[in-house]
Amino acid sequence: MSPQRAADRVGAPSFGSAQSGRGRAIAAVTGIAQISEAPSVPPSEISFNPDNPREELGDVSDLVESFTEVGQIVAITIATVDAYLASRPGRQDELESGTKFVVIDGNRRLKAAREAGLPSVKVIPGDEFVSTDESLLEAAFIANARRRDLSDLEEAQALAQLVKFYGSQHKAAKRLSMSQPLISQKLSLLSLTAELQADLEAGHRNISHVRNLAKLPPEEQKAEADRRARSDAAKKAQRKQRPAKGDNSVITPAEKAPVPEARAPQGDNSVITPQAETLPSESSALPWSDPAALNAMIRQHATAEDRLTLAKLLAQ
């Protein structure tokens, strides 16, 4: 008999019958079946997490403005109420009445979505993240952070959850065999302005243009990202203007200057020795400023072994 999904075992609402690749990957690691992905859920159906009280969420007016102007970029990770209560049976009264899901990551986003009046919010289902078994919970977070189908922002969000679980970037880096500076660099994407995050998700921005911009004030981030984009575009334009390198360049040998005919002095019966032909020095005739021509000349006159030796010498 095939194992039941966690949602089915507890009678939780289902997002669909097909299990996602992410769900299968985590299920293989943790042994917990996953609910399928859902594109969106009404905010009224999601309860704030009791472990993160609403009064501690602070002012979310900046997020409200962002949701109104740009829309929601980063999804809210949720679990079904039944999955949450399965290991916390005494906390039913701490959840909002009539809700079907509980926030795992994104309480401030949920609060902002409600204040902005959004009819629905993007979610990432994750019943595995409400397990009280530390080993299963750790495996679930690690599997989520190592997924290969994540966008840059989704990876940053997954890493943030793992760092929160371990309590530090250093511990998370060690567990993932990843350097702490790299994790910090990836997490910085979560501090970008909503406009830059939206551009990054839509493919309008290169990751190199927005990396490590979190240290700048929001009003300066876009200007710096634009400057990096212009710099990259200028470098690409310069590379295109350079002559293409290849082995098919046609080399036209330099013409030799005619040698004047030696004349005997009048009235002189001495033996005339023909004047030696004056040739331009070999070094001056080489096309030093044309790498492609040099390449073709070397291939014409040098053996394969000599060319290999020359390449090693040039690389030193």
From TrEMBL:
Signal peptide: none annotated. Gene3D superfamilies: 1.10.10.2830, 3.90.1530.30. Residues 39-145 form the ParB-like N-terminal domain. InterPro entries: Chromosome_partition/occlusion (IPR050336), HTH_ParB/Spo0J (IPR041468), ParB/RepB/Spo0J (IPR004437), ParB/Sulfiredoxin_sf (IPR036086), ParB_N (IPR003115). Residues 217-235 have a biased composition (Basic and acidic residues). Keywords: Chromosome partition. Residues 267-286 have a biased composition (Polar residues). GO terms for cellular component: chromosome. The keyword 4Fe-4S does not apply. One of its GO terms (biological process) is chromosome segregation. Belongs to the ParB family. This is ParB/RepB/Spo0J family partition protein. It comes from Streptomyces parvulus.
